[in-house]
Amino acid sequence: MVHFFLVHVMVDECQKEEKGIDLGQRRKKKKTTDKRLSDGIFFLELLSVVEKRVVNWGLVTKGETEEDKKLNATYIISVARKLGCSIFLLPEDILEVNPKMILILTASIMYWSLLQKAKVNEDDRPPDEATVATEEVEGNPAMDEAATDDGGTGTTDKEETVTEEGNS
């Protein structure tokens, strides 16, 4: 049930982000145990939704024969790695529709997509917010007190040693 939910969430998020691409109409949402996933087309469409120009559709086969399916599966892994996804599955896992590995592939694509959104949001943030956050951490008196060895006097053991030697 979790597998089915994750694929639905990923597809729904992609559809919200990319209004021009409707993955749900081209390909019905599937469970990770659906044997029709072995052709790889669903994952190639999913990858093209999260990053528009990453899939070269001229290299994609229809997935009608085992050899075509293996070519698509290999291409899925190549494209996902090119994006920066962590890939732990082999083309055989896609061909055999190994549900756990399909789930990991989907989660990895989703994680990459969320990281990209976070980067965009971080870039959109005004520089003042980043500066204020840094100043708060650096100027925290509680942190400064905890960092000193002598309980908050502001001097360290090394400074006390130098002071004592200077007085002799």
Automatic annotation (TrEMBL):
Domain (Calponin-homology (CH)) spans: 8-114
Region: Disordered; residue ranges are 120-168
The record's annotation in SMART domains points to: CH
- How is the quaternary structure described? Interacts with F-actin.
> Keywords for this entry?
Actin-binding, Repeat
Task: Cite the InterPro entries for this sequence.
Answer: CH_dom, CH_dom_sf, Fimbrin/Plastin
- GO CC annotation, single: actin filament
Native source organism of the sequence: Lactuca saligna (Willowleaf lettuce)
Give the top-rank taxon of the lineage listed in the UniProt record for this protein.
Eukaryota
GO BP annotations, alphabetical order: actin filament bundle assembly; actin filament network formation
Provide an example Pfam family for this protein. CH
Q: What is this protein called?
A: Calponin-homology (CH) domain-containing protein
What GO molecular-function term can you cite, just one?
actin filament binding
